[in-house]
Amino acid sequence: MPGEVLAMAKFIKPSMRVALPVDYAGVSMTMTRQMIEHGAGDLHLVCVPTGGLQVDQLIGAGLVRTVETSAVSLGEAGPAPRFNAAVKEGAVHLMDATCPAIHAGLLAAQKGSPFVPLRGLIGTDVLRYRSDWRVIDNPLADGGDPIVLIPAIKPDVAVFHAPMADRSGNVWIGRRRELAAMAYASDIVLVTVERIVDENLLANELTAAGVLPALYVTAVASAPRGAWPYGVWGEYAADAAEIARYAQAARTAEGFCSYMANIRMEAAS
Fold first, then answer.
1. 132 three-class SS
2. pTM (predicted TM-score)
C-alpha cells in the first residue's frame, strides 16, 4: 500500500545513515520512490556491499551527501549515470570501500565492537584514500604483521524488500544473510514485502532458518512487486528492459526528471 510505505519512509530523517542492499538481495524500489516523495536529504548511503538503480535514483533526486560503497552500477545496463555525474561534479562524497570491508564494518556494529581487523587491504589504493581506516601491527604476532582496523558501520536505518512476513513482523529473507547483517547493525529496520501471511514463520521448521525475527524489524508494509524493476528471488525476475530504459533516460538530468515523473504518474494511475 503506497500510504503504508510513505509512512515508513517518514522514519528517515535528514543526515541519517541508510543501509541499502545489493541489487539481487531485495531492493525496495517502492521505498525508493516514497523516500524521494518524503524528501529527507543529506543522506549517507551505505551500500551492502554495492549499489545500483536505487542509489542512482536517490542521488538523482538530490537526497544524498555521501555514498559508502564497493561499486555503483546498473549491471548489464551499464554505468549508473546520476552517480557518475554527481561524483564528477563533486556533488556527493564517495567513501570507496571493498565488499569485505563493508561486511566487516557491519559485523563490528552488530557485535558492539568499535572495529574489526581485516587483511587484504595493505598496499591498495582504497586504503590510501580511507583516513578512517587504521593500520597497526598485529599485537599477537612478533612484529612485521600489519593489519587494517575497519571501524564499525552502524546505520541509522536499513531498508529492504523481501518475499513475505507474518503478522507478528517476522520477515523471511531466505539465504540473503546480508539483509540480516544490515538489520542487526541498524537502529531502525524498514521492510516492504510481497505479501503478509497468517502462519508464524518462526514456528515452521521449513522457514524458520531463513527468518529475520520481528525483534530486529521496526516496520513492515505490504507492497506487491515492490522491488520492480529489480526482481525478488522465488517471485519474479528483474525487468532488464526497464532498467535499460532508465539507464538511457538518466544520462541527463532532464531525462532523469522526465523518467521519474512518468513513474509517479504510472504509480498514481
1. coil
2. 0.95
